[in-house]
Amino acid sequence: AQSVTQLDSQVPVFEEAPVELRCNYSSSVSVYLFWYVQYPNQGLQLLLKYLSGSTLVKGINGFEAEFNKSQTSFHLRKPSVHISDTAEYFCAVSLRGFQKLVFGTGTRLLVSP
Amino acid sequence: KAGVTQTPRYLIKTRGQQVTLSCSPISGHRSVSWYQQTPGQGLQFLFEYFSETQRNKGNFPGRFSGRQFSNSRSEMNVSTLELGDSALYLCASGLDPAGQDRLFGAGTRLSVL
Description:
The structure holds two protein chains of two kinds.
Chain A: E1 3-5, E2 10-14, E3 19-21, E4 24-26, E5 31-38, E6 44-50, E7 56-58, E8 64-68, E9 73-78, E10 87-95, E11 102-103, E12 107-112
Parallel strand pairs in A: 2-12
Antiparallel strand pairs in A: 1-4, 3-9, 5-6, 5-10, 7-8, 8-9, 10-11, 10-12
Chain B: E1 5-7, E2 10-13, E3 19-24, E4 31-38, E5 42-50, E6 53-57, E7 64-68, E8 74-78, E9 87-94, E10 103-104, E11 108-112
Parallel strand pairs in B: 2-11
Antiparallel strand pairs in B: 1-3, 3-8, 4-5, 4-9, 5-6, 7-8, 9-10, 9-11
């Protein structure tokens, strides 16, 4: 079975500061890795995904993530955050060949001026 | 290109009633998956369908059921509603079951009184 751990439930940060949201996963087989963002009263929007190949993945809104197989991590980073980045961020994995996603518990990013 | 459409957006029911939620995937998409989101349990997988066949099912009681029609639209049904069924129900559609792509709808917020 697969599992995802997001160690930080909440990350406060000042505007224009860098941020890293941590994600660790567990799986005995290869998986796809995803980061989603959720704004209040909305669905999930895909930020980026790792399927294979280059371990550094660039996504929308200036976000990027690095897949580290040895540490089973997929941390999300942004060099300079904006107020509008305030939202809930979810890390997720899926088995290759299936639509089912297993989600972490989410990290609330709070950006203040 | 229209996105994933979930209807209704909001729903209020009382304990013991049943409810049916609808999901219309993006045109051409044949894979649909459903998730329940609650503050306590987070995002949990319910079902996954492809070409009218259920490929995967989450760990939910038999009161939760679903189906997919020949036009790829999907419905999920919850019978004998309990207070704990209050949640945001999210649907995602994908081109195929490979798991590389999926787009989420805005969700249906169900309140059980």
